[in-house]
Amino acid sequence: MKRALAAIVVLSIAGCGGPSDKEQIETTVRDYFTAFASSDFSKACDELAAPTREELVKAARTKDCPAALQRGAQRAEVKRFQSRLKDAEVVSVQVKDKTAVAKVRALGSATSLPLTKEGDSWKVQGQAGEEGD
């Protein structure tokens, strides 16, 4: 009986790996949109790949990524829908090695969001591309 119980415990532990790539990607995307919608630009930047953060800072001519996102969020066309981004939904995920594309539905349309793996974490890479409904 003790051996059977020990075998069950070992098997259950062995099957308890971390979250799958798909689950990690879904979490990254949700965390990014929720942080941006809540104006938590530091948290939103944490979900971005390093090159994407650098591009944002350069394009916005700001000192850092949170300031770049804040500047973008102050634009009238972004302010109008910013809070609704927390309702973004990951519809599908395609993973290929260390890159992925998440199809995200937000604000009544679908978009493809590229991601890349940095170390053990998935990060949003670049801008979303609109795909329509």
Helices, strands, pairings?
Elements: H1 2-14, H2 21-37, H3 41-46, H4 50-60, H5 65-73, H6 76-79, E1 89-96, E2 99-106, E3 109-118, E4 121-124, E5 129-132
Antiparallel strand pairs: 1-2, 2-3, 3-4, 3-5
Helix pairs in contact: 4-5
Task: Give structural attributes.
single chain; 133 residues; alpha+beta; Nuclear Transport Factor 2, Chain: A; 6 helices; 45% helix; globular
Brief overview:
With 133 residues, the protein is an alpha+beta fold.
What does this structure look like?
Helix content is about 45%, strand content about 25%. About 25% of the residues are buried. It has helices at about 1-15, 20-35, 40-45, 50-60, 65-75, 75-80; strands spanning about 90-95, 100-105, 110-120, 120-125, 130. With about 130 residues, it is an alpha+beta fold. It contains 6 helices and 5 strands, in the order ααααααβββββ. The chain has a single domain, classed as Nuclear Transport Factor 2, Chain: A (Roll), CATH 3.10.450.50.
The level of helicity is 40-55%
Beta fraction: 25-35%
> What is the number of strand segments?
5
Low-confidence stretches: 4-14
Tell the overall outline: globular
Provide the structure class.
alpha+beta
Biggest beta sheet attributes: 5 strands, antiparallel
CATH class identity: Alpha Beta
Rg over C-alpha atoms, rounded to the nearest angstrom: 18 Å
Mean pLDDT: 86
* Number of individual domains: 1
